[in-house]
Task: structure prediction
Amino acid sequence: MLELKPMLSALWRNKASALLIALQLALTLAIISNIVVIVQDRIEKIERPTGITVEDIIALNFMAIPQNYDMTGAIAADLELLRALPYVKDATVTNQVPLSQSGSAGTFYTQPNQEIGGENSNYYNTDPHFIDTLGLNLVAGRNFTDAEIQFSDPNESPEIAVALVTQQFAEKLYPGQDPIGKPLFDGSGSNPIEIIGVVERHLGAWVGWSNAGNVAFFPSIKNTQDTNYLIRTEPGKRDQVLKALVQKLSERDPQRVIKTKVLSEYVARSYARDNLMVKVLSIVAAMLSFIVALGIVGLTIFWINQRAKQIGVRRALGATRTNISRYFLLENSLIAGTGIAIGSAAALIVNQSMVRDYSQPELTLMPLAICALLVLLVSLAAALTPAIRAANISPATATRSV
Amino acid sequence: MLKMNNVRKSFRTDTIETHALRDFSLEVKEGEFVSVTGPSGSGKTTFLNIAGLLEPPTGGEYLLDGDDVSNLNDRQRSHLRNEKIGFIFQGFNLIPDLTLFDNIDVPLRYRGFSAKERRKRIEKVLEQVGLSARAKHLPAQLSGGQQQRIAIARALAGEPRFLLADEPTGNLDSLMARQVMELLEFINEWGTTIVMVTHDPELARRAHRNIQIVDGQVCDLRAVPEQPAAVSV
Result:
């Protein structure tokens, strides 16, 4: 038989301790629910598709030692050598390595000489093998051709005529329209660059950038002192190829410094802060839950010791062990319920401030409800052992004078 | 009503075993008012605990209403306590955070009565003990005598056939003690069997029969009006 009314009135007469626990639970819920939403956001960010077959790609950077090095010739020869290596599916040249926290970006417009309303985007100067090497999915239009590649010196501004863009960037430039054949203007002026193809997805250089999905690809190779190759291997053969390729390139031309790194390493470094935040916040949430649970255990044990005689009297009057443990669990649920009600309101208020001031994700009802349930379960689990202990108090306690 | 045959109760620690009751045999008939006296540590409270099913005996046989209740489990003892036995404690043992109404309600809730039935019973017993107007008060707002009357009301609300009183006047002045005693006699006249543990020989004499316990055994059984209770060895 539930004893809600007398239980509530008894709690009201001892409201200080109950309120302290309720506030502790409220604070925990407010903090944990906001931690959960941040962790969830970071995990979503880490796990979002890059559009790239990250695990099979090797990034190679080389710097030529001699001045006036024939970079154009070296690139052609190197790529031919790389593509001929066993287990290599394709290789490409690029000015920047995707997802490496190092890249190039600019503002692009849909009208010539436009000064406002542009869209920021990463861009890559590359060749027609970029799509296959990175495993990108061409969803509209066509790829570059070799004939469209513009070779230029570092100080030259080549007249680029065509571009590939990501679907996200295309939608921002031309919302709801077919972007194929439409022009793109870079910040400098009036030369139209025709969009000839759209790739489904590609994350650019900076994973934390809100425009990371805005990417343009231009058929352009600059004759600089250093450049990057990306090499895609057959699945599971990356490390084997990695060992062989430096030796092969050095044999072909020893006058350069070559550095290699697998793309997954770049990705891991790019998300290192997010991963650290997920771990730290998860530990904070777990420790906070543990401390609150300890508080509840402590207070419930204190209450039980304080009310040992009363429990004995209840037992003498006919309460079964189940009645007693249920009483304490129900009492705890009432306190937890109060804490959850206050905590939910506090969580939403704190979240509004975090959304407004720190651009953190919005707390929705579902994670809040899950956190509230979690807090309730932690609270009940913490009260369970003391409640069972209370149930084991002998009814003979009622007749003891001390 | 209550029959104990060679009941034993011992408490054991790591180093010592204490025999609180030894071959304790006693019969209390329906409608009797029996007082239990004896020196401190003689086993009165242990007897009361076993009689009230607050703890099981170590050995022997205990029959309540003809049923052997010596080996019932905790749940069965709880139900039987709730249905058949009313308790009155020396320190009243009212729950301080509950109103008088809610205090009396405690055993009725465990009994599973409807809210309407509980209210009816509570109002009836409050009237019987003359404290209807104080139903919403807390125990601390009452005198000792009034608190004991509420404790008696709580014991009576379930209409038990058997009332166990542990020093019911021990914490009261003589006037209050007399009032409580008169109330118990009145209850007994209605037909409720009462077993009362007391140190007070005057009160003991007012019972139908006095039982003297010494060293965990019944020492003498005699009709009280004719002869005062005394230890018989």
The longest strand of chain A covers residues 57-64. Residues 180 and 195 of chain A are 5 Å apart (CA to CA). The mean pLDDT of chain A is 90.
